[in-house]
Write a structure and sequence with these properties.
17 strands, 8-stranded mixed sheet, 34% strand, Rieske Iron-sulfur Protein
């Protein structure tokens, strides 16, 4: 095994003593009961009714169909303004996503009914937001699965850097959002499951719903960048990784999980990379060239992590028998049987 050299900004010394739950081998630290407890806490957070659709760049003046919480939606732009509405035409149910946009209004491909921001019978546009990186829609009431979740004027998000290069990856998987969030609440799997990317990983703190991790991202087999990062959930369908020490401090990776239909979810991950290096402004000017490489790395990891989330969903729903216990067992402190 070649010796690994790390580069980048220096990090603070590791704590002289870790809490008891962070001692021992990784399979013991990755306590499924504690992960499930943290997941339940995340699922209880308010969402304001907001769901991520896709990247800001992916929605144009050409209508596009989306599913969210079993609802069929259409999204388009009227100039720079994002609009989202039910996809079924209120006249006879045609898919509006198959029609054109004329002067900012979507035109039914069957009979020419033009629809914009005004309500038309039961048809009514939804609140929508483009935050410059992601496009969001707000659903209210029973469709959200949490009627007691009061709507908010904007999505509930983590702080973002002031200047950044952003890249957004979207893929779909046979699971529910809770399985995606559970994947991110288990950073211990990183080195074992993604050895091509993570060369070393140590969870060094758990406090207030945040995990603190020291991780080495591999550049080559012998060279890596070491950083400290936190993981936390700002809402029940999002988990954010923030680099808090080392190279790229302030960079964030937002992983959003949007329920599409029963047992099917979209995983939308936004990477916002920043740096205090003098040359970063030049890198921003070359963002169009850099972005495809970031997206390729994102997708490589999430093809694997989507399989993790799908496996977890299959075990949790009984499609595959679990050894020793169910994944939704009551919270406890000992390692799971058969883990």
């Amino acid at each position: 095994m070649p010796k690994l050299k790390t580069v980048g900004n220096p990090l603070s010394p590791l704590p002289s003593e870790l809490p008891p739950e962070l001692r021992g081998p990784d399979w013991v630290q990755a306590n499924p009961h504690r992960i499930e407890r943290e997941l339940r806490a995340a699922l209880a957070l308010p969402s304001g009714g907001w769901y991520v659709l896709d990247s800001s760049r992916s929605i144009s003046g050409q209508p596009r169909r989306f599913w969210v919480e079993g609802r069929e939606l259409v999204a388009w732009r009227a100039g720079p303004e994002l609009r989202v509405a039910p996809d079924a035409c209120p006249h006879m149910g045609a898919s509006l996503a198959e029609g054109p946009v004329r002067d900012g209004r979507i035109v039914c491909p069957w009979h020419g009914l033009e629809l914009g921001t005004e309500k038309h019978g039961a048809w009514c546009p939804f609140e929508a937001l483009d935050d410059g990186v992601l496009c969001w829609v707000r659903l209210e009431g029973p469709a959200t699965g949490n009627p007691g979740d009061p709507p908010t004027p904007r999505p509930i998000t983590s702080p973002r850097p002031d200047t950044f290069i952003d890249s957004v990856m979207r893929l779909e998987a046979d699971c529910e959002p809770r399985d995606v969030i559970a994947n991110r609440l288990d950073p211990w799997h990183g080195v074992y499951y993604h050895p091509h990317t993570f060369k070393r990983l140590k969870v060094i703190g758990v406090e207030g719903g945040r995990l603190l991790v020291r991780v080495v991202y591999g550049m080559t087999d012998r060279l890596g960048i070491e950083v400290d990062a936190t993981f936390h959930c700002p809402d029940p369908r999002t988990i954010t990784m923030t680099i808090v020490g080392g190279e790229g401090t302030g960079s964030v990776v937002e992983t959003h999980a949007t329920p599409l239909r029963a047992g099917r979810s979209a995983i939308i991950e936004a990477t916002l990379a920043t740096s205090d290096r003098p040359g970063f402004q030049k890198a921003i000017r070359a963002a169009g060239l850099i972005r495809p490489f970031i997206r390729k790395s994102q997708r490589k990891l999430w093809v694997e992590d989507a399989a993790y989330a799908e496996r977890r969903y299959a075990l949790r729903t009984g499609q595959v028998p679990a050894a020793g216990r169910a994944l939704s067992a009551p919270a406890g402190e000992g390692p799971a049987q058969g883990h």
